[in-house]
Amino acid sequence: MRTRSTTRTPALTEIGFGGAQIGNLSRAVHEDVARGAVDAAWDAGIRYFDTAPHYGLGLSERRLGAALRGRPRADYVLSTKVGRLLVDSPDTAHLQDDDGFAVPAAVRRRWDFSRDGILRSVEESLTRLGLDRIDIAYLHDPDEHWEAASTSGVGALIELRDQGVVSAVGAGMNQAGMLADFVERCDVDVVMVAGRYTLLDDAAAERLLPLAAERGVGVVAAAVYNSGLLSAPRPPADATYDYSTAPAELRERANAIADICERHGVDLPSAAIAHPLRRPEVVSVVVGLRTREQVESTRERYRTRIPASVWAELSAAGLVAA
């Protein structure tokens, strides 16, 4: 699998393993299934793995760390996130998590972008992962916490970068505007933009991608299926977009894109993966993976050659920017 990098970003495989699914996103995943997905990703040549404390209240980090244990540490890149501390919550341990993951609520999330909060978060992630360093640390969803995240948060990550505890720092969000602000105003190396540079949403192209190119900051594109609408050759009637029911007009647009893809012998999900990689600023596409079968289908989609005529026709139809 090919890799990409920038002057500030470590070399990442063009496909990255998104670890939310093995943190029991939406439903429980057996330990063996989760381990099989990571093993299949390794066999497929994927060497970039992304996780976060938020994913399954630490479960994703523990599973990913265990699955990668014994692999040569220099051979893969691992990213995790900061900004949500996990705090013991015995009063809710008998309940299920109420933030999308099928895990017991034995801990709760607490926003904290202070210096001490960031240092504690990284230390606890290292323990769950069983590692002594992190390759990339992202400020996680600081939408309502710009002031703290862009000062004490970034400052603490830079401190850890200077110490060699992390190699690169940045932010990961479901919006492009604030990520562009981080690139413009802060000393970041890489950002992860979820859902905002896809076949259906190119918000990142306005400011984020040009700024990243100018400053040598890598952009990781996540959620390229927009949480489901672009994940099947034909969007089903109950397809989701950004974790909600997809509006009819977006389903129609996805079907129009699929019409053009099919005329050229390719399918919609393969085009969804290929689209962000058309831009050199994008160093990896992270796909959420739950099973060995999902890894294998992702590898085949990645390997699909998308003719230039597909992009030309989509552009001429006003469906995708040139």
UniProtKB/TrEMBL annotation:
<feature type="domain" description="NADP-dependent oxidoreductase">
    <location>
        <begin position="14"/>
        <end position="316"/>
    </location>
</feature>
<keyword id="KW-0560">Oxidoreductase</keyword>
<dbReference type="GO" id="GO:0047834">
    <property type="term" value="F:D-threo-aldose 1-dehydrogenase activity"/>
</dbReference>
<dbReference type="InterPro" id="IPR020471">
    <property type="entry name" value="AKR"/>
</dbReference>
<dbReference type="Pfam" id="PF00248">
    <property type="entry name" value="Aldo_ket_red"/>
</dbReference>
<dbReference type="GO" id="GO:0005829">
    <property type="term" value="C:cytosol"/>
</dbReference>
<dbReference type="InterPro" id="IPR036812">
    <property type="entry name" value="NAD(P)_OxRdtase_dom_sf"/>
</dbReference>
<dbReference type="InterPro" id="IPR023210">
    <property type="entry name" value="NADP_OxRdtase_dom"/>
</dbReference>
<protein>
    <submittedName>
        <fullName>D-threo-aldose 1-dehydrogenase</fullName>
        <ecNumber>1.1.1.122</ecNumber>
    </submittedName>
</protein>
